[in-house]
């Protein structure tokens, strides 16, 4: 039987990793790595192609076995950081008094992309009632091109409601052989200034990204692969290559997004903080209720109408170098061994160990603006060649057991030697390194927990990346939190790309949206991901209504193939799932039978609730805990809540039951009624209705999500107090 292989390719700062994943089993069918081709004329896309060919050859994968190939790209991010973007001509449009505002707000001037780097723009304004026809449009475009514009952006007041004029400008430009895009094509939100700015940055990337996309697609097709070619988005999903050509701005930060996709699909975290630890830096992101937390992107301090993962990056990782002053550790990082051109002490093999008596310790300044108190180890010379890193410290303390584990005991020997130079022990030296790294990581994690009001009892620190063991276990211990290190951690981002879900987002400004408005935006979101290759039966849509900003957001996700269960996997019986639920609750084995009850089952999903009294204030008070877990038959926790109400019903009665629950658990305050969070469990799906603002919206969307399901099918409704 022919395999069905998904290929994921992650473009990192140093290496480009390619991974082949068996779509039926999630097993790794092959790995390959090549240096990232930053300096090649083709850019990082050359490394994408090289790693793919190497993977096909080394893993003996036939082109017709590949059902999907997807890659991340640093091309958009690098272009912004380096200012390597095309000049953009802006045609602002309007009429009357609104036109005066449009004339000002569509003129973005130059936009700062990074410190000292700007996108260059040229601007013209057209009154759509006085001087608007194809001849005038053509003449205006020629003027902008003569001034230096390579791409045209059309942006009109209320263009999201009436995009015809913007589309007309784009069509005229295309007929002239000039790249063009409209502001309403990039975003459907009100806010002319931000919408125009977003379109300008998108347009500035288009020439380079179009060239990259064409080269990559041609090379992949020449290899015989006919499967869809997808690109990682900055919000954790994937999109097809044609969508990338139209909206390259969506690929910003696609590298960190890949790791989060793996945390969801491969590690299967439902609530946690994901730390992707490389050699130089650690990307920290958040997963809540089985979804990544998204924020509005910013460039040069300016907000854009683009959604990206909320990723916090810290300058400490597996290869961070130690700084010493007066024989005391003063810091670890942010400079890494790789950037300084030094080898990790932990990656020496037994047969290449230098003589310990030939070593000397020396301060160095790796880069021009770095402090001069970083330390390196010299071998029979005055030039440092070896670095002491958190990865080495993890080996000394016995934390490293996977990818980071040293192949020899040289790392222990060199830490002992180094510790003697500063009058301490290897264990104390390694512990201090770990404590400094963990403290930096803890500070960011604590800020995230406070900002999003996350329940610590539900969180897992999940580690991925080659340096995960150097940072995550010690941080988890310091914070008294659960942690897990991903299998195949060193290629976790490539795995996330291979398993990525097709995703698209529609955002609209709708004042007081009706149920019909929400159903229409839901339908449009579904159609978008279906056009990109998602099978209709796999598509799910989550809708959020923000009363303050009047913004409605629909996120559609889907897969390009039906997930097939691994024929070798054994479904877990209900009692084993009960034990898994108890462990997730933190209950002891003795509490499983009496304190964990199965509240209902819907398809492959089981809903468990625990019951336990927590003694507080030295026995003066007690608090009853009623945690909830939704677990599938593979034993994966799909939803976890600290407490809540559970009602079992049928889909035919779900609307009535929902209405009753909403009336019962809505709380009232100065701002009016506050609805509870609502989840509908049906046909093996967790339908998240938490983002909706009115009872009728919740009921209407629940009906839309379940309209093709049998009315006599079991359904479970979970409500929880909104935080």
Supply database-style keywords:
33% helix; 723 residues; 20 helices; 41 strands; six-stranded mixed sheet; Rossmann fold; alpha+beta
Structure description:
It is built from 20 helices and 41 strands. The chain is of the alpha+beta class. The chain has a 6-stranded mixed beta sheet with strand order 3-2-1-4-11-12. Strands 13, 14, 15, 18, 25 and 26 form a 6-stranded mixed beta sheet that branches. Helix 9 (254-265) packs across helix 15 (492-498) and helix 12 crosses helix 13.
The portion of residues forming beta strands comes to: 25-35%
**Helix/strand structural class:** alpha+beta
Number of separate strands: 41
Specify the CATH class of the largest domain: Alpha Beta
Helical proportion? 25-40%
Number of helices: 20
Give the N-to-C terminal Cα separation: 50 Å
What is the number of domains?
A: 5
Q: Give a short account of the largest sheet.
A: 6 strands, mixed
How are the strands of the largest sheet arranged? Answer: 3-2-1-4-11-12
Shape: globular
Named CATH architecture of the largest domain: 3-Layer(aba) Sandwich
Would you spell out the secondary-structure blueprint of this structure?
Layout: E1 5-11, E2 15-22, E3 28-35, H1 45-58, E4 66-71, H2 75-82, E5 88-94, H3 96-105, E6 111-114, E7 117-119, E8 121-127, H4 134-147, E9 151-156, H5 164-175, E10 179-182, H6 183-186, H7 192-222, E11 229-232, E12 238-240, H8 241-246, H9 254-265, E13 272-277, E14 282-288, E15 291-292, E16 294-299, E17 302-309, E18 312-314, E19 320-325, E20 328-336, H10 337-340, E21 343-344, E22 359-364, E23 374-379, E24 384-387, H11 390-396, H12 410-421, H13 426-451, E25 460-464, H14 468-479, E26 482-485, H15 492-498, E27 502-509, H16 515-531, E28 540-546, E29 551-558, H17 574-585, H18 592-595, E30 596-602, E31 605-610, E32 612-616, E33 621-625, E34 628-632, E35 637-641, E36 645-650, H19 654-665, E37 667-669, E38 672-674, E39 677-682, E40 685-688, H20 695-706, E41 714-720
Parallel strand pairs: 1-4, 4-11, 5-8, 5-9, 9-10, 13-25, 21-24, 25-26
Antiparallel strand pairs: 1-2, 2-3, 6-7, 11-12, 13-14, 14-15, 14-18, 16-17, 19-20, 22-23, 23-24, 27-29, 28-29, 30-31, 31-34, 32-33, 34-35, 36-41, 37-38, 39-40, 39-41
Helix pairs in contact: 1-7, 4-5, 9-15, 11-13, 12-13, 13-14, 19-20
